[in-house]
Specification:
- It is a multi-pass membrane protein.
- It is found in: Cell membrane.
- This is MFS transporter.
- Keywords: Cell membrane, Membrane, Transmembrane, Transmembrane helix, Transport.
- The protein is mainly alpha-helical.
- The chain has two domains: 395 residues, MFS general substrate transporter like domains (Growth Hormone, Chain: A, Up-down Bundle), CATH 1.20.1250; 55 residues, no CATH class.
- Helix content is 77%, strand content 0%.
- The chain contains 18 helices and no strands.
- Helix 2 packs parallel to helix 6.
- The longest helix has 38 residues.
Amino acid sequence: MTSTPTTLGPAASATRWTPRVWAMLITLCIVLFLDGLDVSMIGVALPSIGAELDLSTSSLQWLISGYVLGYGGLLLLGGRTADLLGRRRVFLIALAVFALASLLGGLVTSGPLLIATRFIKGLAAAFTAPTGLSIITTNFPEGPARNKALSIYTVFGAGGYSFGLVFGGLMTGVGWRWTFLLPVPIALAALAAAYVLIPKDKPAEEGGHDILGAVFSTGAMLLLVYTVVSAPEAGWSSARTVASFVGAAVLFAAFVAVELRVPHPLIRLGILRKVSLVRASLAIVAMGGSYFSWQFIVTLYLQDTLQWSALELALALLPVGLMVTASAFYSDRLVGRFGTGPIIATTLTVMAIGYFAFLRIDTSPSYLAVILPAVLMIGIGWIGFPAVNIQATSGIEDHEQGLAAGVLQTSMQVGPALVLAVTTAIITSGAPVSTPAEALDAFRPGLVFAGAVAAAGALVAIVGLVLARQDDAEPDIEPEPELELEAA
C-alpha cells in the first residue's frame, strides 16, 4: 500500500494495518454486526411476538417493514448528511439513537408501539450504515486494501445474521423481549469505542443542506414503501392505493426537478450514470429481496404450520450465515482474481437454483435431503455480497462515497421491502387455510416469486458481464485522416 497524505485518518496513509486501524475497522464491523443480529433475531421471534401481542400475519410484516420504512426512506439523506456534517459526528449520534430504540423495543407492551421503535431503529440505521461504509472507503485507498476491509466489513454483517439466528432462537425461548434488549450493551460498547477510534474529519468544503430535496425524497420513499406494504390489505385497485401510488410518483418527480435546479443537490443525479453502481444496486435488490421473502415464508411455514421451535428453525438456516462468515478468508482474493462481475453473476445464479430446489419441500420435509441442499445453495448466493459493495464504490470520488453508499443501501432496503410486500400479497390473496397441505399450496407461489427475483438479478449481472467483455474486446479504431482536396 502506498503512503498517501490525508486528513481523513491514519488508515488511508498507513503502509501497514496498525492496531488502531484494526480496532477502528472492527468497531465499524460490530455496528454492522448489530444490523444483521437485529434482523435475524426479530425474524425468528415473529411467531412468538404475534402470539403474545395478538398480531396477524400482515401486522407481523410491519415489524420488518416498519424498520425498512425508516431505513430506506432516509438512507440518501443519511449518506449525504455524513458528507456534509462529518462522518464521525453523524455516526456517533445515530448509534446512540439505535441503542435507545433497542431498549425501548424491549419495554413496550403494544404492537403499534413496538412497530414505532422498529421505525426509529430504521431511522438510526439509515445514518450508521452509509456513514460506516463511507468511513471505510475514505480511510482505505481503492484497491487490495479497500477490498480486504470491505470483505471483512460485509462478512461481519453476515456473521451478525448467523449468530442472530442462534441467539434469536435462544432468546425467544426465554422471552422474545430479549431479542430487543440484547443489542443494547453491544451498541453502547461500540459507541464508546467509536468515540475514541474513529478519526475526526472535516465536513465537505462545498455543499449545502438541500432541505426541499430531502423532504421530497424522504416523502416519496416513505409513501412508496407504505403503499406497497399496505396494498394487500387495502386492495391493489382501491382508491387509496392508486392515490398513494400517484402521490409517490408526484413526489419523485418533484424531487428530480429540485435536484436539477439547486446548486448543492442532495443527490447528484449524474452519479446514477455510474454503470457499476446501478448494476450493484440491482444485484442487491435481487439478493436481499428474494432472500427476505423466502425467509419470511419459511419462518411462517416451519414454525406456525409444522410447529418447529424457534431454535430448530434458527439451526436449520444457520448454514447461510456460516458460509458467508467463512468467506471472509477468501472473498477479497476472489475479487482480485476474477473481478466483481463474474462473482455476482455466479453467486446469484446458484442462489436462484437454491430457491427452486426448495420447492421440493412437503408437509414432512427431510432436512438433509430437501432443506439443507437448498439452504447451502442460497448461502452461496450471499458470498457475492462483498463483491456487490466493492463494485458499487469503485471509481467514486471520496467526497461522494457517502452518497454512493446511501444509494446502495437504499436499494438494499427499499428494493427488498417492495419485493417482500409483493410476496406477502401473493401468499395472502387466497382463501383461509386450515391444513399444512393447504398452507404449503398458498406459500408455493411466493417461493416461486422469490426464485424468479433472484433469477432476474442473475440475468442482469450476466448481461452486464457480457457487455463489459464486449467493450473490452473492441479495438480502438483511429479515425482516418481527412483527405485534403487540392484546389482546382
